[in-house]
Amino acid sequence: MTIEERLAEVRDRITEATQDAGREPGSVQLVAVSKTFEAAAIRPVIQQGQRIFGENRVQEAESKWPELKAETDGLELHLIGPLQSNKAANAVALFDVIETVDREKIARVLSEEMLKQGRSLRLYIQVNTGLEPQKAGIDPKETRTFVDFCRQDLGHTIEGLMCIPPAEENPGPHFALLAKLVQDCGLSKLSMGMSGDYETAIAFGATSVRVGSAIFGQR
Ligand SMILES: *Cc1c(COP(=O)(O)O)cnc(C)c1O
């Protein structure tokens, strides 16, 4: 299959899963995860009208996205990997949405950088639903307090919550937990679901799914 065919199939499956869940058509956004792929592989996907992309490393994104953004209007770039404070300035300059805010320090640094650069990024809080020690994300129990802190103390626009369930587990309970937390926090956006489980995530209320290999091929 070509990259165009794979993209079309993912779009069809998102439409179908949205319908099956009894949800509004168009209520699930596709974030095309282009990490490890070069600009030449990304262009055909942009040509098919895809505008939202995800990258997990700031430095790698800087090697291709300034060029791609200059070629096409309206591209929206999401950071979906961990962010270190020393990369925050670069991240604020290039990305439109940061999905991986997970601690007070980075929330503060982002606040300072946005002010300095006059840019306002939309943020997601990453939640470690499986409480995995090696994985980033805030403890589900602390999510509400952290969201309130980001909004009230720092004035951030918190768009929603994001999670990456443990690889070997049934993702359903993790998606359900994130959906409940989003309600508890008074938020509405849920970034959850990847190539292997995006249809399940849609059934649990995902408003955006992050799909890489099902579009671009194996990394
Ligand atoms: C790589 C990545 C994805 C996409 O994974 P695929 O299985 O290739 O679809 C989604 N979310 C995050 C946070 C990732 O790092």
Low-confidence parts, pLDDT < 50 over ≥5 residues? none
- Distinct small molecules: pyridoxal-5'-phosphate
Widest sheet: strand ordering: 7-6-5-4-3-2-1-8
Order of helices and strands: HEHEHHEHEHEHEHEHEH
Class from secondary-structure proportions:
alpha/beta
Number of helices: 10
Q: How large is the radius of gyration? A: 17 Å
Calculate the terminal CA-CA distance, rounded to whole Å: 16 Å
Annotate the secondary structure layout:
Layout: H1 3-20, E1 29-33, H2 39-47, E2 52-55, H3 58-62, H4 65-71, E3 76-79, H5 88-94, E4 97-101, H6 104-117, E5 122-127, H7 143-153, E6 158-163, H8 172-184, E7 189-191, H9 198-203, E8 208-211, H10 213-216
Parallel strand pairs: 1-2, 1-8, 2-3, 3-4, 4-5, 5-6, 6-7
Helix pairs in contact: 5-6
What descriptive keywords fit this protein?
alpha/beta; 10 helices; binds pyridoxal-5'-phosphate; single chain; eight-stranded parallel beta sheet; 219 residues
Structure in words:
It is a single chain. The chain is an alpha/beta fold and 219 residues long. The protein is built from ten helices and eight strands. It has an eight-stranded parallel sheet. Helix 5 packs across helix 6. The radius of gyration is 17 Å and the shape is globular. The model has no long low-confidence stretch (mean pLDDT 97). The structure holds pyridoxal-5'-phosphate. Pyridoxal-5'-phosphate (PLP) binds next to strand 8 and helix 10. Pyridoxal-5'-phosphate (PLP) binds at residues 33, 35, 56, 80-81, 164, 194-196, 210-214.
